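Hallway conversation turned thread

IA: we were arguing at lunch whether anyone had actually written out Lipoprotein end to end. Turns out nobody had. So, for the record, here is the sequence (420 residues) and right after it the structure tokens. Reply here if something looks off.
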Amino acid sequence: MRTARGAVVLLAVGVVASLTLTTGDSFSRGRPNAAAPDPTAPEAEPEPEPAGTPAPTPTPTPTWDGKVHVLGDGSTSYTGPQPKQPTPEKLKPGEKPPQFVVFSWDGGLEGDDHLFSRFRKLGAENNAQMTYFLSGIYTLPKSKRTLYHPPQHDPGAASIDYATDAHIKDTLEQLRLAWLDGNEIGTHFNGHFCGKKGGDDWSAEEWKSELDQAVSFVTNWKTNTGYKDLPPLPFDYTKELVGGRAPCLEGQKNLLPAEKAAGFRYDASSPGEFQVWPSKKDGIWNFPLQLLPFPAKGSQGLSMDFNFLAGQSGNTSKGDPKKFDEWEKETKESYLAGFERVYNGSRAPLFIGNHFEDWNGGIYMQAIEDVVKDVCHRDGVRCVTFRQVADWLDTQDPKVLDKLRQLDPGQPADWSRLVK
């Protein structure tokens, strides 16, 4: 009996479509690996790769030879295995599972508020690695916007602003540093369309096109921007990209087949579920936003900054400043209540979603910062990426995972009997 699940209030995710999203809002698998070019040779001007062009089947990646291999037009490179990655280990008999906490960010833009760099540094200082879901068009100049062909919309259309040239450069730098810090670079796709003609209305083929284009923009940013003097990203995005979150949490049904065909290992687009141990949908790990206790309202709400915003100030991101302190406290207390419930109970992973935004005076950013500083230093806690959670789950005994899924979020287990 799962009494902790109780009656819930699901704050409206769809309200996001009614707010104006700015640049602060926040594949086909297996693109070929180009041979490393001679760094002394003049750089050729490659032709832009049409978005969504199928790639030939690549050869298996050999053991790294210790050299940097620049890929394609020089936008990305292979610099070896990602640094600072934990080695997943199977639970030993009687062992309590780690308490995983995933902080994730939709959009991944370094704007004038420098929130990407703020939270990247915060993570490094607090032993927290995070997942950054990059919107592909944040690497595409507005002058080249018609290269983007969004499903069911005109070329170049988007519900978020294209980044300025300066912001593209700053974002590329933060992506580089984030990956080197051990963080994950996922995808938030491209145009952030919600509601009519958005993700819920897209077919699997349309989602595939959106995926292919998201990867194309990241792997061809040098061609599209002309920034030849910038170094390549230090990772092969066609191999590093293993998961994403759909804008407004819409369209997972048809998105999953496209992701599965692309070789994704997880999807974080579910519109909300209870705090239970994850399972798979269509062979892909389902990492949903979660319903957390909302003590101030005696209900539960989704674990995303936008949903607190919707419940506190409705359809405006500039609510009553007199209530900011109260709302910030409510938000922080809800995150911590959700954490304490599983930390002292089932140990199910806690998934939290955010945007790089200054909604309601930046109170949601401060709430998350306080939570990171609080929970990531606690005994048994691992603040990790979605990919790292997938790695750990894939290492476990499926029978043990089945038992974990039966636990109520706040239900302490007899680990000596459950984990055998």
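OS: looked through it. Residues 1-61 have pLDDT under 50 and may be disordered.
IA: good, adding that to the notes. The longest strand covers residues 99-107.
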